[in-house]
């Protein structure tokens, strides 16, 4: 029994360490540079722990170590296509400006007192960051990154349980789906891998099942999708276009997709440069 408890504690520490490094990476990306002492204070860990994290991130080619801290290493965006899901940090570097604009437009839809479902995804993560100080709402998510990031802010956060997908740091499976079914969301925001005339798609069966639960339990259903995903499909078909109410994107969809969205009664919001 003691051995099993030790294993559980070790696993928990590894997960927390991974989330901390990803949040650290995002903070340095946003600011350009952060000192080791500032990072230690931000995360409540020792500077030795921070230096170890920075060394790992530098070895992965994500950051550049400097005297007393680290700075962001700009890299060319990576193409994502097909059924294989790229890692979260790689997706975060794709179409960053577009995702930021989409998140800002999405934030405007959230009203005081609402219960808000936030799905897994890089754009939903951007939205969560914008909602962090909204202490008059409740956020329900299966995303460990979102829950961890919001833990130090006044917003109310509920984390669904279930099986941990370690690469994505999400909770999914029958337990998560069952728990989602007990909520009634005023608004749900979904990230997608692809969008075509046939509907919305995802990389993982487990995530698709939870997205379907969010769609079923929400009064208003909003898909966040940057224009690079138009006209594509992925491994799992999540839902038809008439299963959601609103699409927020950064550019007008191609004519065939725009016509299909209109026929399905979907409102399309274009988050242009003025939304930045």
TrEMBL record:
Superkingdom assignment: Bacteria
A GO molecular-function annotation: DNA-binding transcription factor activity
TM stretches of this protein: none
HTH deoR-type domain: residues covered: 17-72
Keyword ATP-binding belongs to the record: no
Pfam families: DeoRC (PF00455), HTH_DeoR (PF08220)
Alphabetic keyword roster: DNA-binding, Transcription, Transcription regulation
InterPro entries, per database record: Carb_Metab_HTH_regulators, DeoR-like_C, DeoR_HTH, NagB/RpiA_transferase-like, Tscrpt_reg_HTH_DeoR_CS, WH-like_DNA-bd_sf, WH_DNA-bd_sf
Protein name in UniProt: Transcriptional regulator, DeoR family
Organism: Bauldia litoralis
């Amino acid at each position: 029994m003691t051995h099993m408890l030790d294993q559980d504690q070790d696993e928990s520490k590894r997960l927390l360490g991974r989330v901390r490094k990803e949040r650290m990476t995002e903070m340095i990306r946003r600011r350009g540079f952060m000192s080791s002492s500032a990072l230690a204070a931000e995360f409540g860990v020792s500077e030795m722990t921070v230096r170890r994290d920075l060394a790992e991130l530098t070895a992965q080619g994500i950051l550049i170590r400097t005297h007393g801290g680290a700075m962001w290493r700009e890299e060319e965006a990576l193409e994502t296509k097909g059924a294989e899901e790229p890692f979260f940090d790689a997706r975060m570097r794709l179409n960053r400006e577009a995702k930021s604009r989409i998140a800002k437009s999405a934030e405007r839809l959230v009203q005081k007192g609402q219960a808000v479902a936030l799905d897994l995804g890089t754009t939903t993560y951007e939205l969560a960051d914008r909602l962090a100080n909204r202490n008059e709402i409740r956020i329900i998510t299966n995303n460990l990154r979102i829950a961890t990031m919001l833990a130090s802010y006044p917003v109310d956060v509920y984390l669904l349980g279930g099986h941990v997908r370690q690469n994505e740091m999400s909770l999914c499976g029958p337990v998560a789906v069952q728990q989602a079914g007990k909520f009634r969301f005023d608004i749900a925001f979904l990230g997608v891998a692809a969008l075509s005339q046939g509907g919305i798609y995802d990389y993982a069966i487990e995530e698709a099942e939870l997205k379907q639960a969010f769609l079923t339990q929400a009064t208003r259903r909003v898909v966040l999708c940057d224009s690079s995903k138009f006209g594509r499909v992925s491994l799992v078909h999540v839902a038809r276009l008439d299963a959601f109410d609103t699409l927020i994107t950064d550019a007008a969809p191609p004519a065939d997709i725009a016509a299909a969205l209109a026929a399905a009664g979907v409102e399309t919001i274009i988050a242009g440069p003025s939304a930045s």
